[in-house]
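Dear Dr. H.,

I hope your travels went smoothly. While you were away I took the liberty of generating a structure for the chain from your last submission, since the lab meeting agenda had it listed for discussion. I wanted you to have the full record in hand beforehand rather than looking at slides cold. The sequence, exactly as received, is reproduced here:
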Amino acid sequence: MTDATRGAFRLGLSVGLTALTVGALHVPQPFLAILAAQLIAGAPCTSAPVFFSRLASATAGSLCGVAILTLAPNEQWVSLPLFFLLAGGGTSFVARHRDMASAILFCMGIASMVAVGFVFPARDLPFGLAHLASLITASICSAFAGWVFAFPKNEHRGSNHTSALAIGLAAVMSLVISCAVLPTQPTVTVVASVTTALALGRGAAAIGQRFLGGLLGAGAAIGFVIITSGAGNDVAFYLLGLVLAMGGFAWMAERFATITSACRQAGAIFGVMGTILPQPEQFMWGSLERMCAVLAGLSIGCAAVWLHKHCSGFSSPFSDPPEQMKNFSLAQK
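The corresponding predicted structure, in token form, is as follows:
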């Protein structure tokens, strides 16, 4: 079995188990669990400490969101700077000292908690705990899928370089814009924005591919929802189609190196829009709303990275040191 095929089976198993779990439990906004499974399935969970680190990161992100909403429930001039600092600095800290999957879970935890509590204060704790359960479910299912379809021993992963400034900027911008334009889907917009900024890191070379992948995933998700609805909303048919589609995007991402970013973005968009559990017939309009929200989040995340790239002269106290200075220090040694 090739690495691309093994990766597709791994992602398909992770997404399938996650969808079964959140569908059976009727978790609110189940797309968050599918998205988390899609984003972290490609990161090896090599040991028990790594696994528990991911669970702790998801929990810490949610608790940071609770702290922001508790300390400044109605003072936006306090809560927004706190969100900027904790989302950006916290995610960067976790990425440096743990792994990228832990950083993804942390930023998704804090973003989902703050987004829903900022727009709908009465829902903050119940929905936030449901989101935390979704992230934990995705972590468990992804770890199990990684054990069944093991990673190659010589698996090489990129460095965990992140931009705290870009992530914090994306978080605040998406929260403000979602409140003004898309108040019904704040979680989608904010989570899509911060995960995009995290995935792009300090570079902006893959922005074009991200947009193309987003459009591809949106079109595929609309077709998938229409076909699923026409097939009578059969759960088995839905799960099979979801697993095949997301596994296919994962296979293309591994098989064709030149379009990796586009395929991964297409899988993420498909996971958000195509998740119509637990009552598919009621979620067609919801899928279209999520399409607008996730594309808005993608645009905001890319804009934040672009702004950070073109304002790189600004030095943040919690950002990574410039690459040129790192190379200079190594040369001196």
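Two observations you may find useful: The radius of gyration is 19 Å. Confidence is low (pLDDT under 50) at residues 313-333.

With kind regards,
E. W.
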